[in-house]
C-alpha cells in the first residue's frame, strides 16, 4: 500500500468497528456528563471534511482494488499449492482457536468453530490483511478529524465565556449570563456530539460492508451491539494474526 505525506505514519491498532468506545464515552449522552460550553456559532461536522474525504477516498480506492483482486488469484504463486495451503490453514486455525479460548464464555458460544474455520480459510489470502490495514488508516484519519472538531468547539466555548467576562463588570449580571450560556451550550454540545457519533456509526457500516464484500465471515451491516461486539473480536483476531509470521517449512 503506497503511502503519502498526508497519511498518518503511526496507525493505531484499532478500528471504527470498536464503535470507538473512547469517542462514545466522550460524545454520547448515555455515557455520562458532557461539556456544557458551546461556541457562539455552531460548528458543522462537515467543516474541514475535505481533507478527510480526500485521504479516505484514496485509501478506499486501494481497498476496492485489493477486494477486486481477491477473485483473480492464479497458480503462478510458487506457494499456491495444496501442501502449503494446508499448513497455513492449520497455522491460522490453531491460533484462532487459542484466541477464541480466551474470550468471555458468552462470546465463545456465539463464535462457532465453523466461523473460525471460515475465517482461517479466508485469511489464506494475505490481501485481507491489507484491506484491514487500509480500514485502520481510515479509522485514524476519521478519529483525528473528529477530535479536532470537538476541540475547536470547546476552545470556542471558552473564548466566548472569556469575552463575556471582559465585557460585564457586574458580578451578578455576569453570573446570570454565564448560567444562560451554559444552558445553551449544553444543548448545542449534545447536538454536536450526536453528529460525531452518527458520523462514526456510518464509518462502522462502511467497514462492515467492505469486509462483507471481501468475503470475511461474520461481517455484515448491523446495528446490533452484540453482533458488533462479535465483529470486534473477529477483527482483533485478524489484527493479531497479521503480526504473526507463518513459516511454511516449520513443523
Shape designation: elongated
Q: Please, what is the average pLDDT?
A: 76
Overall radius of gyration: 23 Å
Structural class: mainly alpha
Task: Count every helix, treating DSSP H or I runs of 4 or more residues as helices.
Answer: 8
Distance between the termini: 32 Å
Largest sheet: none
Binned, the helix content reads 55-70%
Secondary-structure element pattern, one letter each: HHHHHHHH
Task: Tell me what portion of residues adopts beta-strand conformation.
Answer: under 5%
Uncertain regions spanning at least 5 consecutive residues: 1-45
How many strands appear in the DSSP assignment? 0
Task: Give the helices and strands, then pairings.
Elements: H1 21-27, H2 49-69, H3 82-101, H4 105-110, H5 113-122, H6 127-167, H7 171-213, H8 225-242
Brief overview, please?
The protein is an all-alpha fold and 251 residues long. 66% of the residues lie in helices and 0% in strands. The chain has helices at residues 21-27, 49-69, 82-101, 105-110, 113-122, 127-167, 171-213, 225-242.
Task: Give your account of this protein's structure.
This protein has eight helices and no strands. With 251 residues, the protein is mainly alpha-helical. The N terminus is likely disordered. 66% of the residues lie in helices and 0% in strands.
Features:
251 residues; mainly alpha; disordered N terminus
